[in-house]
Amino acid sequence: IQFESYLMKGGFCLNAQRAAQGIPTMVGNPDDASSKIKIAMLDMNLQKHRMAMGISIQVKEAQEIENIKQREMDITKEKIQKIIDAGANVVLTTKGMDDVCMKYFVEAGIMCAR
Q1: pTM here?
Q2: Contact of 25 with 110, CB cutoff 8 Å
Q3: In angstroms, rounded to a whole number, what is the distance separating the alpha carbons of residues 23 and 101?
Q4: 55-103, pLDDT tens digit by residue?
Q5: Fewer Cβ atoms within 10 A, N terminus or C terminus of the chain?
Q6: Which residues pair with 46 in a beta bridge?
């Protein structure tokens, strides 16, 4: 087994497995102490938004169901976009993170771990 090692002038190492292959393994420049990293530490689920249990909705057309599903996806994307807009390079959460959220972080080049 061959390991890569690198001496960093300033930085932080996480012992976490990437949840998706597209997630970066390193953020910032380890040789540049002025390289800025913003870490979002969250105690919330990063999962597709779902309506609360016990809510009953009556629909008359199948299109209404599709509209509800689309709105759930939009709420999830808006939540992730707010984290991205805050400038986070790294997202750490104590709760779950599903594939939908992971996809948005991978597209934005943000490292995330649970």
Answers
A1: 0.74
A2: no
A3: 12
A4: 777 888 888 888 888 888 898 899 999 999 999 999 998 888 888 888 9
A5: N
A6: 97
The mean pLDDT of the chain is 82
Left if phi > 0, otherwise alpha if psi is -120 to 50, otherwise beta: which for 109? left
Q: Measured between alpha carbons, how far is residue 29 from residues 26, 32, 36, 41, 86 in Å?
A: 8, 5, 9, 21, 20
**Separation between Cα atoms, residue 109 and residue 63, nearest integer Å:** 34
The DSSP annotation for 42-88 comes to: E-S-BS---PPTT-----SSHHHHHHHHHHHHHHHHHHHHHHHHTT-
Spatial neighbors of 29 by CB under 8 A, at least 6 apart, are 35
- The pair of three-digit structure tokens given for residue 35, joined into one six-digit string: 């390289």
111: number of Cβ within 10 Å: 22
Q: How far is CA 4 from CA 24, 27, 29, 86, 112, in A?
A: 16, 17, 17, 32, 21
